[in-house]
Amino acid sequence: MFELIISVCLLNTPETCKNVHLTYMGQISTPYHCMNRGQPEMAKWLSHHPEWSIRKWRCGRVDVSRKET
């Protein structure tokens, strides 16, 4: 399974950044699907988080050992 990993920074304090992992169960099974669906998913995320800007993004395999904070 693949996930979209976006690096985002706050608009009013651009030095405050974090990575956001967007995982889609059963929908994205290949790197191509991830890259193909990435831009619409980032636009959807930004519409709910207007105080952030996207600096970069990539697709990667889901890290099941990563703990959400």
Question: How would you characterize this protein structure?
Answer:
This protein has 69 residues and is of the alpha+beta class. The chain has one domain. The protein has one helix and three strands. The longest helix is centred in the middle third of the chain and has 18 residues, at 31-48. 9% of the residues are buried.
Distance between the termini: 21 Å
* Basic shape: elongated
- Give, in spatial order, the strands making up the sheet with the most strands: 2-1-3
Helical amount: 25-40%
Major sheet: size, sense and barrel closure?
Answer: 3 strands, antiparallel
Mean pLDDT over all positions:
85
Number of helices: 1
* Strand residues, percent: 35-45%
| Secondary-structure element series | EEHE
Determine the structural class based on helices, strands and strand pairing: alpha+beta
Low-confidence stretches: none
Q: What Rg is obtained from the alpha carbons, in whole angstroms?
A: 12 Å
Give a short synopsis of this structure.
This protein has 69 residues and is an alpha+beta fold. It contains one helix and three strands; from the N terminus they run E-E-H-E.
